[in-house]
Amino acid sequence: LPEAAMSCVDCHNPHGSFQPGMMQVFTANEPGCFKCHGDKRGPFTFEHAPLRLEGCGSCHEPHGSANPRMLTRQEVRFVCLECHAGLPA
Questions:
Q1: Do residues 79 and 73 touch, judged by C-beta distance below 8 A?
Q2: Alpha carbon 3 to chain centroid distance?
Q3: What are the backbone angles phi and psi of residue 66, rounded to the nearest 5°?
Q4: Are 33 and 61 in contact (CB under 8 A)?
Q5: How would DSSP label each residue in 3-63?
Q6: Predicted structure pTM score
């Protein structure tokens, strides 16, 4: 990365992994993003299920984004509406 604060092997296993994208570890075995972002680990009273099932990448672009907080969409509401579009008003 440009700032040299981290490298690919901080997240990826160069020798392969059963995880998608050769991630170091993720969900039940954790670290993944929690290695650096431990404050996001929880436990929380109302935990967002995609975090445990799909990981941070369900809403965030781990390789960077032009959007705030590296979101997959420009606004938070658009990220939420991808899964929660059928909810009553």
A1: yes
A2: 20
A3: -80, -10
A4: no
A5: T-S--GGGTB-TT--SSGGGBS--GGG--GGGGT-GGGS---SS--HHHHHT-GGGTB-TT
A6: 0.68
Would you say 18 and 8 are in contact if contact means Cβ atoms under 8 Å apart?
Answer: no
Question: What single letter denotes the amino acid at residue 42?
Answer: G
Q: In one letter, which amino acid is 53?
A: L
**73 is written with which tokens?**
């969409």
Dihedral Cα 73, 79, 81, 82, nearest 10 deg: 80
Q: Residue 83 has which token pair?
A: 């899964």
On average, the pLDDT of the chain sits at 77
* Contact indicator for 61, 71 with CB cutoff of 8 Å: yes
